Amino acid sequence: MIELALKKKLLSTEGELELSIKTTIENGEFVAFFGESGAGKTTVLRMIAGLETPDAGRIVVDGETWFDSRKKIDLPPAKRKIGFVFQDYALFPNMTVAENLRFALQKGENPVIVDELIETIGLRELADRLPSQLSGGQQQRVAVARALVRRPRLLLLDEPLSALDHAMRIRLQDELAEIHKRFKLTTILVSHDPSEIFRLCGSVYRLERGEIKEVGTPSEVFVKERISSSFKFVGEVLAIEPCEMVYLLTVAVGTQIVKIMATEREREGLRIGSRIQIVSKAFHPMIFRAETAKGNSED
Ligand SMILES: Nc1ncnc2c1ncn2[C@@H]1O[C@H](COP(=O)(O)OP(=O)(O)OP(=O)(O)O)[C@@H](O)[C@H]1O
């Protein structure tokens, strides 16, 4: 279990911002930090990694204290068992894939893990190539493998797929899901992409101005809109579930996730990742009375 209690004064463009986060994350969970730019998501990851020092608080991982401001404990990054993957792949350009992975080994550590990872992450054909000879997606797969070399307790992913195109993102999302299943590693993902979070994560923390404003499953946090309110929009299919005689599609539309019904014929040819256009044949809005200032419906 990971216990986080973090406080830090940040300087945002709108002035001082008090970051204050308190939560626990169970072992093996895959959670997302989601929220507006500048909410403090990256700073939280950097504090967990030991790259940034909180003003106050505690970080305890499986009973081992990594940081405690009262007890003056502050383990250096190399002593914290984390794997970190950033948006830019940060591979050493002069080293091959295999050398990049070997370089991540700690002194005296058995290099067999490197071969295992090259196999499990499917890098065998790329092992002797330099990063400049790899696509962005391939480089990011190497970066993920490298993050796993030290058998971390915690994997931190800071928008790892945001520089990739749509098709490559989907592929790597599948791989990340597979890696998570295989290694059962507690993972924290920073992402701006609800569809990515929906695919990968069991829970989402929505951060706003340095605080956790909402925690829940991706459905609870993102599926606010159950009725279509516009004539036409384009979305990406995240899930297809049979539901009685029809199908329930979960679709990412912009930053929202909606659920819509589809007939057998409409569902034909659709798969996860398909882009679809949703058209409301007749504009028939449903109107609900707004809440009063007291929070009760008006009579
Ligand atoms: N060491 C620091 N000291 C003071 N302020 C900082 C420090 N690091 C970051 N900040 C500020 O804290 C705010 C939060 O930054 P952070 O990068 O954590 O946000 P974010 O939610 O990850 O944003 P984005 O989605 O754009 O990456 C920003 O306004 C940033 O300028």
Describe it for me?
There is one protein chain. With 299 residues, the protein is α/β, with parallel strands linked by helices. It has a 6-stranded mixed sheet with strand order 7-8-9-3-10-11, sandwiched between helices. The chain has a 5-stranded antiparallel sheet with strand order 2-1-4-5-6, covered by helices on one side. Strands 14-13-12-15 form a 4-stranded antiparallel sheet. The chain has 8 helices and 15 strands. Helix 4 runs parallel beside helix 5 (166-183). Helices cover 24% and strands 33% of the residues. Strand 10 and strand 11 (211-216) form a beta hairpin. The structure holds adenosine-5'-triphosphate. Residues 10-12, 35, 37-43, 52 line the site of adenosine-5'-triphosphate. It comes from Hydrogenimonas cancrithermarum.
